[in-house]
Specification:
Residues 141-152 have a biased composition (Polar residues). With 166 residues, this protein is mainly α. The chain has helices spanning 10-15, 32-36, 38-44, 48-67, 72-100, 114-127, and strands at 3-9, 24-27, 103-110. It has one domain.
């Protein structure tokens, strides 16, 4: 069953239910159209930075493979693997671009298709009282590390302490 992530602009996430029409649902998994027509898929989804990096990487890789006198079959295989990587990482690239633009991830929904995911998300989202709505925790940043409880030179695990008698 597909998994969808729900994203909203920071302004829409803070304003609550009024801006729900701007939410974006991104299906996780392999995207066949990104594999078949990578640059066109990137243009369609307006991933301009990713498109520039994709084109620059493909041009540099093609020039390098030509300079190394790699045969056409091997060049095709390498470019096919790059297209496969784009198909696999397409949702991650969309999420990265949205995060760069200031969008926030609101939720993760599991459903058969996007319509069901939207229905499931909005049923859960509207079940919350409008006055008790709080924007979700920003999951795009890493949590702070735990404070260290070990003193200097102390080793955890099955190893003895340095300099301790056996």
């Amino acid at each position: 069953m597909p998994v969808y992530t729900v994203h909203a602009p920071a302004v829409a996430a803070a304003s609550g239910p009024a801006a729900a029409d701007r939410f974006v649902f991104i299906r996780d998994g392999f995207h066949g159209w990104a594999f078949v027509g990578g640059p066109f898929w990137l243009i369609y989804h307006r991933l301009w930075t990713v498109l520039a990096g994709y084109v620059a990487f493909n041009v540099a890789l093609t020039v390098l493979l030509t300079a190394l006198n790699v045969d056409a079959g091997s060049r095709f295989a390498v470019l096919l693997l790059i297209a496969l990587l784009l198909g696999l990482e397409a949702p991650t690239l969309r999420r990265w671009t949205l995060a760069r633009r200031g969008w926030r991830q609101l939720d993760v929904v599991t459903a058969d298709d996007q319509d069901s995911a939207e229905r499931r998300f909005f049923d859960r989202w509207t079940a919350q009282a409008a006055d008790s709505y709080q924007p979700p925790i920003d999951r795009s940043t890493l949590p702070s590390p735990r404070p260290s409880t070990a003193s200097q030179g102390e080793i955890f695990g099955l190893f003895p302490r340095p300099g301790a008698p056996r």
